[in-house]
Structures are given as structure tokens and as C-alpha cells.
Automatic annotation (TrEMBL):
Entry keywords, A to Z: Membrane, Transmembrane, Transmembrane helix
Family: Belongs to the CD225/Dispanin family.
Annotated organism of origin: Crypturellus undulatus
Location (main, coarse): membrane
Annotated GO CC locations: plasma membrane
Localization per record: Membrane
Protein's recorded name: IFM10 protein
Entry superkingdom: Eukaryota
InterPro entries: CD225/Dispanin_fam (IPR007593), IFITM_antiviral_protein (IPR051517)
Transmembrane segments: 89-114, 135-157
Amino acid sequence: PLAAAAWAPRAARGPPQGCFACIAKPPALRPPSPVLAPASAGYLMESSSCKGDSLRPAVPCKHLVEKKTMTNPTTVIEIYPDTTEVNDYYLWSIFNFVYLNFCCLGFIALAYSLKVRDKKLLNDLNGAVEDAKTARLFNITSSALATFCIILIFIFLRYPLTDY
């Protein structure tokens, strides 16, 4: 009853093993895997450590060996970092420049905010982060000092010095 039985190729499970050069070849051009004896094939079918076919062991790719011993020309792909996550504090700087410009600190913060925007366009992430920290520092200082002066003015208007 099994005289007409033939080996049928199995559907691939998961991603193919090996490098792109070996996977891209048609099956007829790939080197054949050694077929094991039936006794050892049963062991491989039960073993979960085998990454290849259940009846054939995984053959190491010859290209992986060549990569270790040969120096192949490489292609460098530059991936620019995402600069949209760098905050430039532009609106806060404009507010400080217009309303709370204590000793021109709001103007300096605005200048650094514009430098952050320029460096983000040039994909200079490290420079943009440093200038963003400086702009934030000047914005905090300008806001704090201007708020402190406004509070002092209201206190002296409420309680003039002639009462003391």
C-alpha cells in the first residue's frame, strides 16, 4: 500500500534559517542537507532544540563562516534621531519676552529657543538638547524673578513704607 508513497515537501514553518544569499536561491540550487538514519531521525523529531526540518538537521550557512573570515564591503545607513521630542520652550520664551522680561532674561530665553529650532532642522540633537536646557533655565529664572518683583510691588502698594 505504501509503494506509491513519495516524499512531499513540507510548508515552511516560521522565518527561513540562514542568510539572505542562501534563502534567495531556488531550492534546486541549495546544497542538500544530509539525511539521517531512521533511528536518529526519531530522536530529532522529539528534540525541541533542532531548528531545522524535523528529519534533517540545520546546516550552517556557508556565508556566515565567510563573514567571520573575510572583510566584506559594508553599506552605512545614517538614521537621524527623532528631533521632535526636544522641547524648544518657544511659547514660554515669547510670553517671558513680552510680559516678564526681567533684565532681558526673556529675550535671552527667546534667542536660545530659536537656536533649538535651528539645530532641530540641522538634526543636531545634542546641541538642541543643550540649548533647550539653557532656554528652560533662562525661562525659569525670568519667570521667577519677575513674579517675585510683581509680588513685592503688590505688597508695598498694600502696605506702604510710611506705616512702619
